[in-house]
Amino acid sequence: MGSLKDKVVFITGASSGIGRSCARAFADQKAKILICARRAERLEKLAAELKQEFGVPVRHFPLDVRNQPAVEKAVAALPDEWRRIDILVNNAGLSRGLEKLSRGLLGDWEEMIDTNIKGLLYVSRAVLPGMVERGSGHVINIGSIAGYEVYPGGNVYCATKFAVRALSKGLRLDLSDTPIRVSEVAPGMVETEFSLVRFHGDAERADKVYQGLEPLSPDDIAEAAVWCATRPPHVNISEVIVMPTAQASTTLVHRK
Ligand code: NDP
Ligand code: 8X3
């Protein structure tokens, strides 16, 4: 297993769910943790927790990945030791609504496209030149089973995750003459704030999504990301699909 000690791991959307679990899992491997999200207070709390529990260096900054100039500025402003990012976990993302396309809310569409596709691109564009220059690095994109199968009402969210899959593949092609690795980790249902965000804060509706089955935990996904990152340098894990045992597809879920 490759060591992650002192590697700089940059995780976007670390204030909650999978991103937060990734920060903890990579810190457990003694990596240096660089985290961002919009909710600064949460990041501050997580940073303190990581330093205390794992004794690793942590740097955090508020960032909206939809804001391209802010993304570029934030990465450029990092001190040298933090700017040489070894592993980028493109995790920040969200779903909004589950409406038929004919009734979809334009604001929801913009938010998903701007965050899940354009945000991922902006962060990648800011980080990749350094990786290419140094001839080393690993990009781990958090996709979704929704990037493999479309489900009713999933329309635009699924399209954004199909895009994450296409961008992961495209990036792999573009970097094929470098040692830089590109992996996509694609989860099924993970219990996080994801559904609460999807249903605009309707907790009752969000809870129903996970009723009667054991969903994945965000730690399950963080474990998969760490596994990708700890393979020997000649091994690139291209895609990992992780599903709850009770979920056979996006539309077939066994509930007790
Ligand atoms: P959460 O809602 O718990 O976490 C989402 C994270 O993304 C938060 O930290 C949030 O931080 C951050 N984020 C959202 N928008 C932005 C933005 N504009 N700029 C910076 N950060 C942002 O959900 P999950 O942990 O479940 O989601 C993480 C990823 O996993 C997403 O890409 C999602 O699509 C994917 N996924 C989730 C699945 C699930 O079932 N939960 C299954 C498959 C994939 P803040 O609000 O503070 O900015
Ligand atoms: C989240 C999983 O199936 O709710 O990406 O779209 S799903």
In short:
The chain is α/β, with parallel strands linked by helices and 256 residues long. It has helices at 17-28, 40-54, 68-76, 80-83, 106-134, 155-174, 194-198, 203-209, 218-229, and strands at 8-12, 32-37, 58-62, 87-90, 138-142, 181-187, 239-242.
Explain what this protein looks like in three dimensions.
It is a single chain. Helix content is 44%, strand content 14%. The chain is α/β, with parallel strands linked by helices and 256 residues long. It has a 7-stranded parallel β-sheet, with helices on both faces. Helix 1 links the parallel strand 1 and strand 2. Helix 5 runs parallel beside helix 6 (155-174). The chain is globular. The model has no long low-confidence stretch (mean pLDDT 98). Residues 12-19, 37-39, 63-66, 91-94, 115, 119, 142, 144, 187, 189-190, 192-194, 197, 218 line the site of NADPH dihydro-nicotinamide-adenine-dinucleotide phosphate (NDP).
CATH class annotation: Alpha Beta
**How much is the radius of gyration in Å?**
17 Å
Give the biggest beta sheet. Answer: 7 strands, parallel
* Envelope shape: globular
- Return the string of H and E elements: EHEHEHHEHEHEHHHE
Taking all residues together, what is the mean pLDDT? 98
* Fraction in helix: 40-55%
Looking at the overall shape, the CATH architecture is 3-Layer(aba) Sandwich
Total of helices: 9
| Uncertain ranges | none
CATH topology: Rossmann fold
**In CATH, what is the homologous superfamily?**
NAD(P)-binding Rossmann-like Domain
Record the strand order, biggest sheet: 3-2-1-4-5-6-7
Number of domains: 1
- The total of beta strands comes to 7
Measured by DSSP, the beta-strand proportion falls in 5-15%
Distinct ligands, ions and cofactors found in the model: NADPH dihydro-nicotinamide-adenine-dinucleotide phosphate, 2-hydroxyethylsulfonic acid
